[in-house]
C-alpha cells in the first residue's frame, strides 16, 4: 500500500507544480527563483496557510519546488502531504483509480486500502474503477481541470473536477474536514439540498493581495454568506476575540457570518440547514 500511496502523491505533487501559481495568490508577479524569489513564495505560502502549522511547511516546500523546478523532497509525512495536496488540487476534485486487469484478491485488498487512505487524508473523493478504464483525456483539458497521468505498476490515476466521465462531486468545492464530525454531519444534510449546490468547504477568501487570507468552514460566495462551526476551543478568551475581529472584517466585505456550535450541528443539523437556507436565498436575491 505504501508504494501505491507514494506513487499517487508524487503524481499529485507533479500536477500541483504544473498548476503553479494558480493556487498561490500573489505569486504571479514572481518571475523566477533568482534574487528573493524563493523567499517571497515561501512567505506567501506561509501567509496562505496561516494558523495551520502542518499545512504551512508543506505549502512552502511545494511553492519553492514549483518556482525553482526542483522536485519536492517529500521530507514531511505522507499524511501531511496528502492533506496539503488535497487542499491545493482539491476542492471538489475526484481521484479516479483504474487498476490493471487480472489483479489477485490480495492485490485488490491493497488497492482498496490505499484508496481509503487517500480519501481520508486528502479530503478528496477517490473512485476505484474495477471494470472499465477511464475515458481518454481531451487533448486540451478545460482550465482548472488537472491532466490525467500514469503511475507505476500499470495503475492509471486521473484527477479531475466534475465532468461527464466522473461522478458529480459531492460538494461544489472543497470537503468537510476529515476530523470534524460536525462538518461531516452538516454536509450529509446539505448534499441533498438544491439551494446549497454552490457551497464551498474550507476554501480561502482573499479580499486583497495585501491582506491575509481567511479560510472559513463553509462559504457561499455569490450569496455572501459564511458559516463557522465552533467547538469548545472557541470559548477561550483569545480565540473568542480573534473570531470577533475576523467576523468584523468579513462583515465589512459584505458577508453575513453565521456561527453554530458543534453541539447544535450534531444534535439538529436540519434546523441549522434551514437557518442557513434563509440567508443564502436572501443573499442570492
Short description:
By secondary structure, the chain is an alpha/beta fold. The chain contains nine helices and eight strands. Residues 132-145 have a biased composition (Pro residues).
**Fraction of residues in β-strands:** 5-15%
Distance between the termini: 50 Å
Strand order, main sheet: write it out: 2-1-4-3
The 3D shape can be described as globular
Unreliable residue stretches: 145-154, 160-171
Helix share, percent: 40-55%
Describe the protein.
There is one protein chain. The protein is an alpha/beta fold and 285 residues long. It has 2 domains: 2-160, no CATH class; 181-284, Endonuclease, Chain A (3-Layer(aba) Sandwich), CATH 3.40.960. The chain is built from 9 helices and 8 strands. The strands form 2 sheets. It has a 4-stranded mixed β-sheet, covered by helices on one side. Strands 5-6-7-8 form a 4-stranded mixed β-sheet, sandwiched between helices. Helix 7 (237-252) links the parallel strand 7 and strand 8. The longest helix is centred in the first third of the chain and has 18 residues, at 2-19. The protein starts with a helix and ends with a helix. This is DUF559 domain-containing protein. Residues 132-145 have a biased composition (Pro residues). Residues 217-279 form the DUF559 domain. Residues 129-150, 162-182 are annotated as: Disordered.
Amino acid at each position: 500500500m505504501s508504494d501505491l500511496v507514494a506513487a499517487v502523491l508524487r503524481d499529485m505533487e507533479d500536477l500541483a507544480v504544473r498548476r503553479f501559481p494558480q493556487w498561490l495568490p500573489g505569486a504571479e508577479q514572481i518571475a523566477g527563483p533568482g534574487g528573493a524569489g524563493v523567499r517571497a513564495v515561501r512567505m506567501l505560502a506561509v501567509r496562505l496557510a496561516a494558523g495551520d502549522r502542518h499545512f504551512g511547511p508543506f505549502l512552502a516546500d511545494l511553492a519553492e519546488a514549483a518556482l525553482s523546478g526542483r522536485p519536492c523532497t517529500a521530507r514531511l509525512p505522507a499524511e501531511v502531504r496528502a492533506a496539503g495536496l488535497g487542499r491545493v488540487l482539491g476542492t471538489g476534485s475526484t481521484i479516479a483509480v483504474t487498476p490493471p486487469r487480472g489483479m489477485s484478491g490480495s492485490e485488490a485488498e491493497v488497492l482498496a486500502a490505499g484508496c481509503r487512505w487517500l480519501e481520508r487524508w486528502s479530503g478528496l473523493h477517490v473512485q476505484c474503477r474495477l471494470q472499465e478504464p477511464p475515458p481518454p483525456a481531451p487533448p486540451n483539458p478545460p482550465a482548472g481541470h488537472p491532466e490525467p497521468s500514469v503511475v507505476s505498476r500499470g495503475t492509471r490515476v486521473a484527477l479531475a473536477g466534475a465532468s461527464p466521465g466522473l461522478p458529480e462531486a459531492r460538494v461544489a468545492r472543497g470537503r468537510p474536514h476529515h476530523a470534524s464530525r460536525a462538518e461531516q454531519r452538516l454536509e450529509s444534510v446539505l448534499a441533498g439540498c438544491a439551494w446549497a449546490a454552490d457551497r464551498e468547504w474550507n476554501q480561502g477568501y482573499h479580499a486583497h493581495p495585501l491582506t491575509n487570507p481567511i479560510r472559513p468552514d463553509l462559504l457561499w460566495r455569490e450569496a455572501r454568506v459564511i458559516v463557522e462551526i465552533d467547538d469548545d476551543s472557541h470559548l477561550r478568551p483569545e480565540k473568542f476575540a480573534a473570531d470577533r475581529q475576523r467576523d468584523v472584517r468579513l462583515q465589512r466585505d459584505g458577508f453575513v457570518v453565521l456561527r453554530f456550535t458543534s453541539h447544535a450541528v450534531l444534535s439538529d443539523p436540519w434546523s441549522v440547514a434551514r437557518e442557513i437556507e434563509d440567508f443564502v436565498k436572501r443573499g442570492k436575491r
